[in-house]
Amino acid sequence: MGRLEGKAVLVTGAGSGIGAACVRRLIGEGALIAAVDLRQDAVDDVLAEFNIGDRAFSATLDVADREQVGAFFAAAQQRFGRLHGLINCAGIRGVGSVLDVETEGWQQVMAVNVDGTVNMCQAFARLAIEDVYEGEKASRSIVNISSGAGLMGVPNRLSYVASKFAVSGITRTMCAELGKYKIRVNAVAPGMTRTPFTDYMFQDPENVRRIRAAHPIGREADPDEIAAAIVFLLCDDASFITGAVIPVDGGSTACIPSH
Ligand code: NAD
User: Fold this and answer.
1) Distance of CA 89 from the midpoint of ligand 1 (Å)
2) For the whole model, what pTM was predicted?
3) Predicted pLDDT at 256
């Protein structure tokens, strides 16, 4: 028996990296899955690795588009009924310093990483508060994805850092607002994880050396190691954890690397 047997979980950014790793873990835990991405074909490739029949469905969704988000939640509720969990993995990076950041790039990063997270959380919360039952423990769960860049400043990543600090603040605020409805809200803050998002950083051996030196554990993460923490937060094993922004980062935000 999986820890999420028969429970419906929505995953954004499910076609790649950490989101795809979450889908694979959720399948192992017996969850029902609504998996979305800008690229539905990428999600379908992940789902095609398994023989899970009608336990999962995929859709194209831009999390920054509130209308699309509303339609997706209506479809997910019709398909699965009660929705147990939400994992917000959709995200984009933003490069640029305070001296050169431009409005368009800034707004794109905010639209996906901040508005997208809020759009999904709002739609989930509005449905979830409608079906709280008497005596329920804190069982429903939202997991947002912050970053080491949501805990510390990073030069030349101004918009991304701002968006990930926002995700941490949104997570803690929603914890305060939604606890009474038995909805837990947490975030994980991954360290450097090898995905298409970060592939470009692994082309130069000197950069790889620097990345590994910045993580006391001496390496970058595999996406499944981040997904393990995310899925844990969806389970009853985490029933008293809410409002936490949990570094899953090989120690990279715990200390300054030795020289
Ligand atoms: P990824 O690029 O491999 O996957 C992100 C997915 O999000 C892609 O499939 C993309 O199509 C999708 N996406 C982008 N914009 C979208 C939108 N508007 N609507 C719906 N889907 C959209 O990236 P990843 O490394 O798996 O990152 C996932 C999350 O983890 C991101 O929020 C990222 O900021 C965060 N993160 C990643 C790392 C890392 O080292 N990889 C570290 C810290 C935080």
Assistant:
1) 6
2) 0.97
3) 84
User: Residue 75: how many CA atoms within 13 Å on its side-chain side?
Assistant: 17
Q: Which residue has the tokens 């707004």?
A: 107
pLDDT on residue 131: 83
Mean pLDDT of 36-53: 97
- Residue 139: exposed, middle, or buried by beta-carbon count in 10 A (0-12, 13-18, 19+)? middle
pLDDT of 46 over the 80 cut: yes
Q: Can you give the pLDDT at residue 137?
A: 67
Residues with Cβ < 8 Å from 47, sequence gap 6 or more? 23, 33, 35, 56, 58
> What whole-number distance in Å separates Cα of residue 17 and Cα of residue 24?
11
- What is residue 9's three-state secondary structure? strand
d(CA 121, CA 254) in angstroms, rounded, equals: 29
User: Is 160 marked active-site?
Assistant: yes
Q: Tell me how far the alpha carbon of residue 115 lies from the centroid of ligand 1, in angstroms.
A: 14
Our mutation pick for probing the ligand 1 site, out of 12, 44, 47, 89, counting the most ligand atoms within 8 A of Cβ, is: 89
Please report how many Cα atoms fall inside a 13 Å half-sphere around the Cα of residue 7, on the Cβ side.
20
| Residues whose CB is less than 8 angstroms from the CB of residue 188 and which lie 6 or more positions away in sequence, other chains included | 143, 144, 145, 146, 226, 229, 230, 233, 245, 246, 247, 248
Question: CA distances (Å), 179 to each of 114, 117, 149, 223, 235, in order?
Answer: 21, 18, 26, 29, 16
Integer-rounded Cα radius of gyration of the chain: 18
